[in-house]
Design a protein that fits this description.
Blueprint: H1 2-11, E1 22-33, E2 39-50, E3 58-59, E4 65-66, E5 68-77, E6 80-90, H2 97-100, E7 105-111, E8 116-126, E9 133-142, E10 150-151, E11 155-162, E12 170-171, E13 174-178, E14 183-184, E15 190-198, E16 211-217, E17 229-233, E18 239-247, E19 254-263, E20 269-279, H3 288-292, H4 319-329, H5 335-346, H6 350-364, H7 369-387, H8 398-406, E21 411-415, E22 424-433, E23 439-448, E24 458-462, H9 473-477, H10 489-493
Parallel strand pairs: 14-20
Antiparallel strand pairs: 1-2, 2-7, 3-4, 5-6, 5-8, 8-9, 10-15, 11-13, 11-15, 12-13, 15-18, 16-17, 16-19, 19-20, 21-22, 22-23, 23-24
């Protein structure tokens, strides 16, 4: 099916084709069915692109130019029709004929079809000339989810844009427009790809760490070509998205395979998938690494090294201590990192927790992650000295959290005996720098004690976005109708902030 698409794209270069020309492709993914206890079910993704030079356009009463294409998609098995879809695709209105030649006519649909051998018939009909049709047929085999780990198909992408818009192309916070053909001409200098790996949390821990590998090779699952390889370790989970790009400027013209594999710690394949593609790159650029590897042996052995955690700064820490380090990182974590850390705290995994901590400080100081941890641990020790109380380490308290995240306040006001109030503390920052590097002038934090004897100071209110903002802080701070006067330090520092 993919090779047929290559022939079709060559027809795109012929401007005088009479019948409608299109390219069709598809990839199998799996999605969670919330109605059936989140069981993973196959999701058949079909996408296509129409050559605008082979479509008849009409002018609307508003003086814009459009095309209307009747689309019929029918899936059958030995028992008859199992799914059918019929709709009219209308192009985006344009103002001139010149705009049409650069107009991209592309669509994508997803279907739940069950499993087994399925025949597909795909028909496009130009409603401005119903004799102009495009018909595509294919037979696919849809397999049920694996018992342990399994994988989607490997999808080539044309465009990736970061956008939360809920379009048919939305996935994982991005607009991912699939490439409808596996032929890349000289205008395509980058190969984008996407795949999903499922059920790695069910793989036996004797296989850890799990290694994800993406390569380009001359044959499927063969040694990688030149320097076209990416490897990393993954955190086991229900769904592991796999996406990325390869620059193709040094890759010569030819037939290739994009391979995605999951290996265990001895580099044995647990999962493997590949996608064939053709590249036209008549004048590839040369790099030193390409010159050195111009002749690639079919028996070349990849040299992958897995980090020996026993030789890092983490080797001296127990699992309990690594969990404590993860808690210490929460003040510096964004929402996604916080979610990951909380996942570890609920379900500890010693090896991957250590990888997470190591990679965190390696990002801070690539040359010496241990030094980065030492410098941060000194701040934690300082916080523990300042705020440890009632059996809680300082970094576990609200004040310790804010101190680690934003540093020491410009001014700190402690009020323990103000009439009609619980004990409280105000921190004021002349300029506070948030994690996104945005500066907030005149930032304040209000901490209070609900119980002067046993409780620690809790964050009650702040005027900093992303932190607790409690406009009703007075009802917690003032007791028995007291306070709330102009003499209250809280009113003086916070007021309506």
């Amino acid at each position: 099916m993919r090779k047929a698409g290559i022939c079709i794209i060559m027809l795109f270069l012929c401007a005088h084709a009479i019948a409608m020309d299109a390219i069709v492709s598809h990839t199998l993914f799996y999605v969670s069915d919330s109605a059936q206890n989140n069981v993973q079910k196959p999701s058949f993704e079909i996408y296509w692109q129409v050559n605008p030079k082979t479509v008849h356009f009409t002018t609307t009463p508003e003086k814009t130019i459009i095309a209307r294409i009747k689309t019929d998609i029918v899936f059958t098995n030995d028992n008859g029709i199992i799914k059918e879809d019929h709709f009219i695709l209308q192009t985006v209105p344009v103002a001139s004929v010149n705009d049409l030649m650069t107009h991209s006519i592309i669509d994508l649909r997803r279907y739940s079809l069950g499993t087994g051998h399925i025949k597909m018939k795909f028909t496009l009909t130009d409603l401005a000339d119903t004799t102009s049709k495009f018909t595509y047929t294919d037979t696919v085999t849809i397999t049920p989810p694996g018992e342990v780990a399994y994988m989607s198909g490997v999808e080539l992408l044309d465009t990736i844009l970061e956008s939360p818009a809920k379009t048919p192309y939305y996935r994982n916070g991005h607009q991912q427009v699939p490439a409808c053909t596996n032929f890349l001409d000289e205008s395509k200098k980058v190969l984008h790809y996407y795949a999903e790996i499922y059920g790695t949390d069910q793989v036996s821990k004797v296989n850890y760490p799990l290694i994800r590998k993406v390569t380009i090779s001359k044959k499927p699952n063969d040694s990688y070509y030149s320097n076209f390889i990416k490897t990393d370790t993954i955190v086991p989970g229900k769904v592991t998205p796999t996406s990325g790009s390869f620059r193709l400027n040094t890759l010569p013209s030819g037939n290739y395979y994009l391979n995605v594999s999951l290996e265990n710690n001895t580099h044995k394949n647990i999962l493997f998938g590949s996608q064939f593609f053709q590249l036209m790159n008549i004048h590839p650029e040369e790099e030193e690494v390409v010159k050195k590897q111009a002749v690639v042996s079919d028996t070349a052995i990849e040299n992958i090294t897995v980090l020996d955690l026993g030789k890092t700064f983490l080797s001296k820490y127990t699992t309990t201590e690594v969990l404590a380090i993860l808690r210490m990182l929460l003040p510096l974590s964004d929402p996604m990192e916080t979610q990951t850390i909380n996942g570890f705290l609920k379900k500890p995994d010693d090896m991957y927790m250590r990888y997470y901590v190591y990679n965190y400080f390696k990002a801070v100081n690539p040359k010496d992650p241990g030094l980065a941890w030492k410098q941060y641990s000194e701040k934690v020790i300082e916080v523990n000295k300042l705020f440890t109380a009632h059996g809680m380490k300082g970094y576990q308290t609200d004040r310790g959290f804010i101190y680690l995240r934003y540093g020491a306040p410009t001014e700190k006001v402690t009020v323990e005996n103000e009439s009609g109030t619980n004990p409280y503390e105000i921190w004021q920052y002349n300029v506070l720098t948030q994690m996104n590097h945005k500066d907030i002038p005149d930032a304040v934090f209000l901490f209070f004690k609900h119980d002067d004897i046993t409780s620690d100071y809790k964050l009650l209110h702040s005027n900093v976005a992303g932190e607790i903002q409690n406009k009703g802080w007075r009802s917690f701070l003032y007791v028995n109708g007291g306070g709330n006067g102009s003499d209250s330090r809280a009113e003086q520092y916070i007021g309506s902030k």
